[in-house]
Amino acid sequence: MKRFLKKILGPFLTRLASKASSPERKNVFSSLSRLLRYIEKNSGKKGIVLEVDFENDKFIIFSDHHKGNKDQGDDFANNEPNYLAALDYYLLNKFTYINLGDAEELWKYAPKEVISKNMTALKSEAKFQQENKYHKTFGNHDLTWKNKLDVDIWFKNIFSLPLPVWEGILLKTVIGKKPLSIFLTHGHQGDKMSDNNAFSTWMVAHIWRPLQRYLQLNVNTPAKDYTLRDKHNIMMHEWSSRRENLLLITGHTHKPVFASGLYSDHPNNTINESKIAVASTLSKVKPSYFNSGCCCYNDGNITGIEIAGGKISLVKWFLENNVSHRTVLEEKSLSELMADL
User: Fold this and answer.
1) Which of 2, 69, 99, 223 lies at a C-alpha separation of 20 to 30 Å from 123?
2) SS in 3 state form for 163-212?
3) Is 203 domain-assigned?
4) Helix, coil or strand: residue 255
5) CATH of the domain at 264
6) Are 290 and 258 in contact (CB under 8 A)?
């Protein structure tokens, strides 16, 4: 029956989902702007506003783990040693952990499979919550966590409840007597299937995703399609570049970006403007957009964004002789960054 349904319905459903996942500029801009305004006016509902001091407060931002059930299709399993070592380091050094979404892979696996097979990683995350240093957001692959009841059911034996799962987080501070806001969200805003009203969200999480898992449909997303990836990152940069004294940090594309690529020509950390025409050239790019990369690279490495000691950094954790190491790929002081905004 599965084979028959996949043959009949598969091509149509795959085309429909892939089209819905392709970002449109007006939708991305509208959704990000709407979410930011809402959080600023209604902190504690869809998102939270935190007043911070980056000389003393320390943050680590990881996204896109895609924790699975430890089978051959699990993108996270090989990365878990680096991830656990990183969490131990950040907990010891009193960082606040912002989990920026797609932490659990609920397109391919049911919540029960994912939770039961990832207790070690989840309990390591829960240690940050015990120190009041944990914030979790949802992405398009773990959209189920938008529903408080689902969160309570699946995380009740791991985290202390309630466990808020935000759509966005806004960090506010002052750098050199100037206000700076850092807006964090997964980055799927503008995705027609994952960024909609409560009813469509429920339909996607509880009907479409289980159907996709059952039929094993392969849908193109910015994380897998290089054209969508660059297109999406450029849209995020364009939106953030129009804001005053604001940095945007997302995940979603699995491609790390540091300060819109302004300070580096490394191809892995920049937005590729050669593929899609945009108004600005690299020399005119505003360093307003960051992407944390992911925790599911094929080589077992993970990347993240640190904010600490008045600096913002793109870091990588990698294994060498079976020992996990941290290295800084790019770094800039927030005061220097502010001068270029």
Assistant:
1) 223
2) CCEECEEEEEEEECCEEEEEEEECCCCCCCCCCCCHHHHHHHHHHHHHHH
3) no
4) coil
5) 3.60.21
6) yes
Report pTM. 0.84
> Is residue 148 over pLDDT 50?
yes
Contact call for residues 100 and 137 (beta carbons, < 8 A): yes
DSSP state of 333: E
Task: Give the type of residue at 146.
Answer: K
269 or 296, which is more confident: 296
pLDDT of 212 strictly over 70: no
Range of the domain at 227: 34-105+113-188+220-340
- pLDDT band (50, 70, 90) for residue 34: very high
Question: What is the DSSP code string of 278-306?
Answer: -SS-GGG--S-EEE---S--TTS-EEEEE
Residue 210 inside a domain? The answer is no
Query: Is there a domain that residue 271 lies in?
Result: yes
333 within 8 A of 311, measured Cβ to Cβ: yes
pLDDT tens profile 57-70: 999 999 999 999 99
